[in-house]
Amino acid sequence: MLAPKAFLDALSGHASRLFNGETPIPRTEFESQFKTLLQSGFSKLDLVSREEFDSQMTVLARTRARLEALEAKVAEMEARLAPPVE
Predict the structure, then answer these.
(1) CA 26 to chain centre
(2) Rounded-to-integer distance, Cα 29 and Cα 37, Å
(3) Would you state the pLDDT for residue 57?
(4) 39-48, 64-73, 76-85: lowest mean pLDDT where?
(5) Whole-number Cα distances in Å, 58 to 36, 52, 62
(6) pLDDT given for residue 21 in this prediction
């Protein structure tokens, strides 16, 4: 995995090489090269897709709801088992 700072430094270096070329690069070629550069950089980062992120958030929310329900049942059972306070 590439650290975010290293990624940004590499991106900056590649971008400056694109801008400082001897001949001007046409806009479409620049966009194509920049997109390729970004895809290459992002592939080195430990990223997940939006779909995977949303899926994991759904699982987490469901797990939290189940945990809260279990905690409530345990508290109820403990209250029933506790000796009355005199």
Answers:
(1) 33
(2) 12
(3) 97
(4) 39-48
(5) 32, 10, 6
(6) 63
Question: For the packed helices 4-19 and 27-43, what is the interaxial angle rounded to 10 degrees?
Answer: 160
Which residue type is seen at 37? Answer: L
Q: Are 9 and 28 in contact (CB under 8 A)?
A: no
Tokens of 41: 């950089």
11: nearest Cα among 30, 45, 33, 37: 37
Measured in degrees and rounded to the nearest 5, phi and psi for residue 64 equal -65, -40
Can you say whether residue 24 is alpha, beta or left, with left for phi > 0 and alpha for psi between -120 and 50 degrees?
beta
- pLDDT score at 71: 97
Give me 12's structure tokens.
Answer: 């900056």
Among left, alpha and beta (phi > 0; psi -120 to 50; other), residue 62 is alpha
Q: What is the pTM of this model?
A: 0.48
Residue spans of the domains in the chain: they are: 1-47, 48-86
Q: Take residue 43 and report the two structure tokens written for it.
A: 């592939």
Q: Which residue in this structure is represented by tokens 């709801």?
A: 65
